[in-house]
Amino acid sequence: MKRKRYGLTSTMIFMLLLALTLSGSNTRVANAASPKRPKLVLVLISDGFRADYLDRFGDLFGKRGLKRLMTKGAWFTNAEYGYSTTYTAVGHSAILSGAGPGLSGLVANDWYDRKTDSRVYCVEDPSTKFYAGGKKKIKKHAGSSPRNFNGTTVGDELLLSNSFQSKVISISVKDRGAILTGGKLGKSFWYSSSSGKFVTSQYYYKQNPKWLDAFNAQKLAASYFGKEWKLLRPASAYARSARDDRKYETNYKGVGLTFPHKLTSGLEKPGKNYFKMLRFTPFGDKVTLGLVKKAVVAEKLGQRGVTDLLSVSFSSVDYVGHAFGPYSVEMQDTVLRLDRTVADLFKFLDKKVGMKNVLVMMTADHGMAPISEYMQEFGVDAGRINPKDMAKGVDNALDKAFGPDDWVAAWWNPNVYLKLDTIRKKKLNPTDVENVAARFLLTYPGVANVFTRTQLVNGTVTKSEQGRKMMAAFNVARSGDVFVVQKPYWYLFAAPLQYGTTHGSPYDYDTRVPIIFMGAGVKAGRYSTKASVYDIAPTLATLIRVSTPSLSVGRVLHEGLK
């Protein structure tokens, strides 16, 4: 019997080569998706930094600061917050958790608690002392911790991944800027505007770290007293910004309305008003950078053979925005000075850690609206809403509909909290009361839209961009009963005359922020694909190979990864 010969046909050879090719491709993809872990993750936040600042002022940047991020990083130019309540606490809590206010519970900087009939500040914790090791009696709203925040952060997951061999440090002028990025398990430090010192709380330490006391002993904040904030560039470079002298800007604690700004607050020596005022200048960022450098050295961040995480939230852009607006000469100068501050930080980290070992992520917690009066100069419909007067109007409208009584429990942007005891006493349907309040508010000057608790609980809001963002902002336990959305360029805040402008709306100028990743595993480029701040946490978690935070709803920004 003749034996058959079995050989490889052309089809079989093709299939074998294809399999080998795909296998090699998969291997390369797997390797690319698993870059060497960085020694340090630097989370760089500029409070109130609008997405357009990078393009508006980018030609004036040096090569080693923000422009380095823009050219060497994966820059997502179409990134936004997916909720309507664009406030500092909400944004900072979302950046490293990937969760919006509906899940995190951080519905605003402040909210009303029905059980205690009082305001709750986002990071207040009456069970802990404001100053670590301090003997002072705890004042109302003074104790600070992340206990009001639900979920975990990238830093928390990093610490859990290696039994706390890593370190997570977060620093900001604002307590909420530090605490809500540090997560539940990290260590946080923030600026005391009363003393000019940086502080922490007994949630983190029983006593202040020695290096913190050593830094405070240098009195860096006080060292700027009596100096002048002058223009960084020649006056001609500021032609793209509005004129310097505008009456609707804010002379906060004597910061002044025009250049040069004398840094004294009218005092003969550094005092409380001066330390408060310093936040409204670029030198608040310089003081923050001083503590950041001290922490890197003292804690040996990125120098111990494991991945550490350092979150730095610079606050000056936000404060300057509130006082002078996003189109002011002061804002342009602050952004240019921030560029130099970032370059200084990168240079320092290059010496201590090596920038090739640092994974950087840069973003902001929200944007900033133009000053209403500035927009009025161009014939744009704009104005200011006094929330107290609006709340009185709601009360009067409910009096007419259901009889005189006390109807409004509280107003905290953008929530009207109704008195449930009054509704029960009168045996009314809460939905009917909400609807009457909503109908009145829809006629109020400067109001664009109104949503009720019943709509949001039942998911019956209109399928619109505002409806989507409001649904994401709603938290059953902490949100109010009626929610106000102001018209574009209308100022809506608890103190309508305190600042030139504010944020907190669902509009582009408040929701759009930059997102940039730079470092190992990142594919540099400018990406116009839609991105969300929710995407930061899962992307960082993927790059450093830890679990995604527990409440994260974002996606991995794979287009910017190698």
How is this structure best described in words?
This protein has 562 residues and is α/β, with parallel strands linked by helices. It folds into 2 domains: 40-74 and 86-97 and 105-375, Alkaline Phosphatase, subunit A, CATH 3.40.720.10; 385-492, Gyrase A, domain 2 (2-Layer Sandwich). Helices cover 35% and strands 15% of the residues. The strands form 6 sheets. It has a 9-stranded mixed beta sheet, sandwiched between helices. Strands 14-15-17-16 form a 4-stranded antiparallel beta sheet. A hairpin with a 4-residue loop joins strand 4 (110-113) and strand 5 (118-121). Helix 4 (88-95) packs parallel to helix 7 (175-182), helix 10 (283-299) packs parallel to helix 12 (329-352) and helix 11 packs antiparallel against helix 12. Residues 1-33 have low confidence and may be disordered.
List keywords for this structure.
562 residues, alpha/beta, Alkaline Phosphatase, subunit A, Gyrase A, domain 2, four-stranded antiparallel sheet, 21 strands, 35% helix, disordered N terminus
| Total of domains | 2
Major β-sheet annotation: 9 strands, mixed
End-to-end distance: 59 Å
The CATH homologous superfamily of the largest domain is called Alkaline Phosphatase, subunit A
- Which CATH-level-2 architecture of the largest domain? 3-Layer(aba) Sandwich
Main-sheet strand order equals: 8-7-6-11-1-12-19-2-20
Counting DSSP E segments of at least 2 residues, the number of strands comes to 21
CATH topology of the largest domain: Alkaline Phosphatase, subunit A
Q: What is the alpha-carbon Rg in Å? A: 26 Å
Tell the overall outline.
globular
DSSP helical segment count: 20
Beta-strand residue fraction: 5-15%
Q: Given the helix and strand composition, which structural class is it? A: alpha/beta
Helix percentage range: 25-40%
Low-confidence stretches: 1-33
Mean pLDDT: 92
CATH class of the largest domain: Alpha Beta
